[in-house]
Design a protein that fits this description.
Length: 116
């Protein structure tokens, strides 16, 4: 019975892992959020970000709120401004890889694989 508990616990942990990854990818599925995350390798405020993405200040603020609530960005107060930054280097790498893949598709660059 104990071995069965270990297997079922391992399967549950694996299911939780895939569910968490799916939630992150769902949040990345929005082009504005993806662009914001690509810019947040350094701390920036809403005004700066609004000038760099094709979205209104209000929209940028709402997207940042969703990303913050999900734990994908961190925010800190600096006087009257709130500065945002991506929460994890893993997330930055995921965004960069997604954009690299998009470059291959949109620019017609042949895909490469490690096993070739």
């Amino acid at each position: 019975m104990r071995a069965h508990d270990d297997v079922s616990g391992g399967l549950r942990a694996e299911a939780d892992r895939f569910a968490e990854a799916a939630q992150v990818l769902a949040l990345l599925a929005d082009p504005t959020r993806l662009q914001l995350l690509s810019l947040l390798t350094t701390e920036q405020d809403v005004s700066t970000l609004s000038a760099r993405v094709p979205a209104s200040r209000s929209s940028v603020s709402q997207h940042l709120g969703r990303l913050r609530l999900a734990g994908l960005v961190h925010a800190r107060k600096d006087g009257r401004r709130v500065l945002y930054r991506v929460a994890s280097d893993h997330l930055s790498a995921l965004v960069a890889e997604a954009l690299d893949y998009a470059d291959h598709v949109t620019l017609g660059i042949p895909h490469h694989r490690r096993d070739r």
